[in-house]
Design brief:
single chain; about 450 residues; Aspartate Aminotransferase, domain 1; Aspartate Aminotransferase, domain 2; 3 domains; eight-stranded mixed sheet; four-stranded antiparallel sheet; 16 helices; about 40% helix; about 15% strand
């Protein structure tokens, strides 16, 4: 077995050893329950230090690929083993607060009313058999009309994170290099951790991921997938422009084995127009359209459209689990998407969120705070010290999300994510509290005026 491991390792760094062993596990060459050689034996065979192998083993354990059983040794884990250190768990409030702006959820009062849609469903039978198509034909027709490019196949799943989870399972294997925006959505990073992917963050600007930096990363680290948020990026609020999408597509055309996965999580409450790399790379772009923030989190619906090979793999695998997303909820979504009154309610919500972002952002800028909130429901605010800012706001009954879980690698300053979409009034008082927490005076406490604000890029 030690020869098998040594033969698979071509990069003798801790990351390279972990990736090589992970590929052996994924391929079944190291089946679940297999006892691995000792750290010292592997280190001796590879000609590296035991510390390097120990670090590789720790990475594999964090991803759930192996388990250490004390003196009994280290074993290849059974699928679905426990994992620790979720970034997602670090985002929410952990104390009773009067204003929770850490959640990233939409304002319930701005969601379209479901009452009439539920009444209009009637008692028609929506499911004839367990092997029915997973998407109601009428809903699929509407979704195809709305899609930013012509997808080969389309299916519906239980929300954007379910979509990302299932697409990752279809295209990513242990040790694969995967590229994301930096900062990125923490649950996406958690999902990639669970499959043992090697995640590389690419810096952003106000138009999205930077093409020059993407090219440099792809040259150095051949990747299997690039994950993007085309509109209302969480946490920064940036949206891809059509010019930026075309530039990213030109870069990716040089690397034909890379799949593009787009998470359009905000949907119809985004102010920016839909932009997709699928307009340039339709055979390699998987687009996820979520309806949680626009039409209701409890609908639990998102659509996946793109290459037939990926979408079919997702739909076929679901037949062995949930089978399909509730056709009752699909019928509700269909009604909401086609009802003029519901469409007007969503349009009103889009305008309300834009006004709330602008109101809070303007007041923060007036107080010398650097923040961005280009679109969506979140605001990304630079702070001098994340921990001090969190404690300061908590003392005032305000919860926000720390910026660290969003960062693949550190960026130029500490940040907080504030769900500005939940703030309907009291902007001056909130801005005072946020500014006081964000900017420390020269002694490390209290507000001051920042003369040269730092950006998030």
């Amino acid at each position: 077995m030690i020869a098998l491991i040594a033969g698979a390792v071509d990069d003798r760094s801790a990351r390279g050893i972990a990736a090589a062993v992970g590929r052996l596990v994924s391929a079944g060459s190291l089946p679940a329950g297999t006892r691995l050689p000792t750290v010292r034996d592997v280190a001796r065979e590879l000609g590296v230090s035991p510390t390097t192998v120990s670090e590789a083993w720790r990475s594999l354990a964090r991803a759930g690929a192996i388990q250490t059983r004390g003196r009994s040794g280290t074993f290849v884990a059974m699928p679905g083993g426990p994992r620790q250190g979720w970034r997602y768990a670090q985002m929410g409030a952990h104390a009773v607060v009067s204003q929770d702006l850490s959640t990233g959820v939409p304002d319930h009062d701005l969601l379209p009313d479901l009452t009439d849609a539920l009444k209009r469903l009637g008692d028609g039978r929506l499911t004839a058999g367990y092997l029915d198509a997973p998407v109601l034909p009428e809903l699929e027709a509407v979704l195809r009309e709305r899609w930013p490019f012509r997808p080969e196949r389309l299916t519906v799943v239980d929300g954007a994170l379910d979509a990302l989870d299932r697409v990752i399972a279809a295209v990513v294997r242990f040790g694969d290099h995967v590229i994301v925006e930096n900062p990125a959505f923490p649950p996406l990073l958690d999902l990639l951790q669970t499959v043992g992917a090697t995640v590389i963050g690419v810096p952003m600007d106000s138009s999205g991921m930077r093409p020059d930096r993407l090219h440099g990363v792809l040259v150095e680290h051949p990747a299997v997938a690039v994950f993007l948020q085309p509109r209302a990026h969480n946490p920064t609020g940036a949206s891809l422009t059509s010019v930026r999408a075309a530039a990213l597509a030109r870069v990716l055309k040089e690397f034909p084995s890379v799949t593009v996965v787009e998470d359009d999580h905000v949907g119809d409450i985004a102010s920016a127009a839909p932009v997709s790399l699928g307009a340039h790379l339709p055979d390699r772009t998987v687009h996820v359209a979520s309806f949680s923030k626009s039409h209701g989190p409890d609908l639990r619906l998102a659509a996946i459209g793109g290459p037939a090979g990926v979408v079919a793999a997702v739909a076929d695998r679901r037949h062995l689990g949930p089978g399909w997303s509730s056709r009752l909820l699909q019928a509700v979504l269909l009604d909401l998407l086609t009802d003029p009154i519901a469409a007007a309610q969503v349009a009103d919500a889009r305008e309300a969120y834009a006004a709330r972002r602008t109101a809070l952002l303007t007041r923060l800028h007036d107080r010398g705070v650097t923040a961005t909130a280009g679109d969506g429901i979140n605001l990304w605010m630079a702070v001098d010290d994340q921990q001090i800012a969190l404690v300061s706001l908590a003392a005032q009954g305000i919860a926000v999300a720390p910026g660290a879980p969003f960062c693949v690698t550190p960026i130029d300053s500490d940040h907080l994510r504030v769900t500005a979409g939940l703030v309907a009034d009291g902007y001056d008082e909130l801005a005072d509290a946020l500014a006081s927490a964000a900017i420390l005076d020269s002694r490390g406490s209290g507000p001051r005026t920042r003369q040269h604000p730092r950006g998030w890029r």
